[in-house]
Amino acid sequence: MLFVALNAILGAAMGSFLNVVAERSVSGQRWWGAERSRCNACGKVLSAWELVPIASFLLQKGRCRGCDAFLGWRYLFVELIGAIFGGFSSWRFGVSWAWITALLSGYGLLLSSLTDIYGGYVYDSFVVAMGFLGIAFRVINGLDAAVDGLFGAALGGGVMGAIIVASRGKMGYGDATLSAGLGALLGWKMAALALYFGFLTGGGVALVLLALKKVGRKDPLPFVPFLAMGGVLALIFGPQLIVKLGYFPGWPWG
Ligand SMILES: [Zn+2]
Questions:
Q1: Residue boundaries of the structural domains of the chain
Q2: pLDDT tens digits, residue range 68-85?
Q3: Ligand 1: distance of its center to the CA of 122 in Å?
Q4: Which of 7, 211, 224, 237 has a CB 3.0–4.6 Å from the CB of 116, allowing a cystine?
Q5: How far is the CA of 45 from the centre of ligand 1 (A)?
Q6: 62: alpha, beta or left, given left = phi > 0 and alpha = psi -120 to 50?
Q7: Longest dimension (CA), the chain
Q8: What is this structure's pTM?
Q9: For 154, phi and psi rounded to 5 degrees?
C-alpha cells in the first residue's frame, strides 16, 4: 500500500515534469539543464513549494502567487493523470519488467499526447526513445521477446501508416511513429489491442462530436490522445483478455 501511494506521488511529479517538457518542446525552449520554471503570465520564477504537484495547485486555487493569474486546469489534470497511472501500474504489476514497461509506455504516451494537444506535433526524439528502450528491454530478456517487440513496432507503424496514406493527410505522420514506438514496448498482441481500443474510443468520441455538430465531417481529429487511451486500456485489460481469447500475452505480460 505504501508502495502504491509512493508511486502515485512519483506519478504526480512525473505528470508535472512531462507538462513542462511538452510546453518547452512546443515553444522551442530547452527543457533540460538549470532553466527554472516560471509563471507564464508574469515571468516570476516559481519557488520549490509552488512546484509541489496537486497540493500547491489546490491550496493556491491554481493561481500564481506573483500576479494572481490562473495557471490553467491542465496542470492539475495532467498531475492527476500521472498520479492515477503511477499508482495503478505499481498496484497492477508490482516491481517487475511489466511495471517498468507499463510506466514507460504510459508516460511516453502522455508526453506525446501533450505535445500533440499543445502544438500539434509528436516529437520523433521521444518516440525513438520509447522504441529503443522497448527493444533494449526485450533483447535483455531473450530472442522471443525481442522479435515480439519488432513485430509490435511493424504492426503499429504499418497499420497507422496504411491509414495515413488512405486518409490522404487527414491523419499525421506522428500517429504512425508513436504507434511503432508503442508496439516495440508492448509487443504485437498488446499493440493490436491498443490500436483496437484507440479506434474504439476515438471513433466513439468522433461520432458524439459529429452528432453534436461540434466538428464537421472534414475536420481532422487528433488521434494521439485516443491512441494513448487505447494503450492505457490495453495495459489495464490486455493481458487477461489475451489469455481469455486463448493466447499467451508474451513477455513481459504473462
Ligand atoms: Zn504570475
A1: 1-94, 96-254
A2: 898 889 889 999 999 999
A3: 29
A4: 224
A5: 9
A6: left
A7: 59
A8: 0.93
A9: -65, -40
